[in-house]
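Q: We require from you a single protein entry containing the residue sequence and its fold in token form, and nothing else.
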Amino acid sequence: MRYLDLAIGKALDLGAEYADIRVQKTSDEVVMLRNLSLKNTSHNVIYGYGIRVFYQGAWGFAHNNVFSEKAVLATTQKAFEIAQLSARVNKDKKLRLAPERSYIAKYETPLKIDPFTVPLSEKVELMMETNRILLGYEGIRQAMFYIISHKDEKLFASTLGTRLELNTQWIDPMVSATAVTDSDSQSRTFDEGGRSTGWEWVLELNLQEKARQIAQEALIKVKADVLGPETRRTLILDPNHLGLTMHESVGHPTELDRVLGWEADYAGISFATPEKLGNYRYGSEIVNFMGDNTLEEGLASLGFDDDGVPAQKWHIIKDGILREYGSTRDTAMEIGLDYSRGCNRATYYYDQPINRIPNLYLMPGTKPLTPSELIADTEDGVYIQGRGSFSIDQHRLNFQFGGDYFWEIKNGKLHRPLKKVLYKSCNPEFWNSCDAICDERFWRPFGVINCGKGQPSQSARMTHGSAPARFRNIRVGGSQ
């Protein structure tokens, strides 16, 4: 596209130290069914371009959705003028960009069936059949089914000579059942958090069988006992649940802009500050976290980030020790790194890229261990599946999590179902209490499609993952 070269040439003529342009077309489709009634179908397309200019250690950003030579030149001029003003305001704090080479590349999400080519009637038929199964169980009063499909078609060019074509997609089906009695109502949800793949994943999930399972579990949950007063207990957490826990307590604290204090107003800063690198015991010796934007079907597996930095894989925590962060070209230099880990991403064309969580996951245990063996080795504890409520402080240190489905463990067996369970802990108490992780046969990914950050707010996605893991001596109790 000629507009790429036009913007880059104009930025260089103005005196930019670096500039890039990102032309982006985003398509979103949402289909929502409540019981047997179609409540929403929407298909939105957002199309335009964003231009960044780096001048005298400061950024300028401007965007437009008018595709003409005049508009592109004017948008580039505006971005440069904003960079000039920013440089004057921040004259005592000049940013630097980590070195990067140029790339000419194309990346596409591997998929077999594009969700946007599947007829709406076919989607609704699948959803109707699934909800009929849910509502066929006496006591299930509400069935919900969402399918969200997302596609980004992106062209990127920079003054480094980089030219990229990036076409990425993800899909997320979510099913929930709500059981009601005279005294309570409880829901059980199936939601894997989305994956970067096609409609074939929805077909492979066998959602009718999943519907039977969540309906039965919702009926168990609504009649379950409340755990009682808080005390120190053992927790066994499944991968779906741990996805949210690691997102909030490891993912956000290791975003380098948050570590540096650049991100504070929206969701706080981080306790995991740079002097802790290489010496801070974040978790027990079996705790290993990878940043991995090359992960198959990972939601942050985009080929390149919005700095034009290629996807990478690296240790964030190794053998329990904090080793590195998720970084960008401008944050990396602040702690003496001469490379970026490729974590700069924007949501839409009109958003300026910001430091985001990569695909981040807990490595499985190295010794053979099944979930059944883990439960059998636990005398007194609680087994938690699925996501629930969460709360975490402004330093990403103290936190509280709920869940979606609970069992009490007694003498190595699942003793009774529970509801309304909460646990409280802090970094590093929680991750240092991890004493067992099931092996790679039981590792599963879990996606997040709605990670909010920034002002104006942006929503990003990334994939987490783990095998079932055990945590000792955690404060666990029932809420009312």
Q: What stands out?
A: The radius of gyration is 24 Å. The domain at 2-223 is CATH 3.30.2290.10 (PmbA/TldD fold).
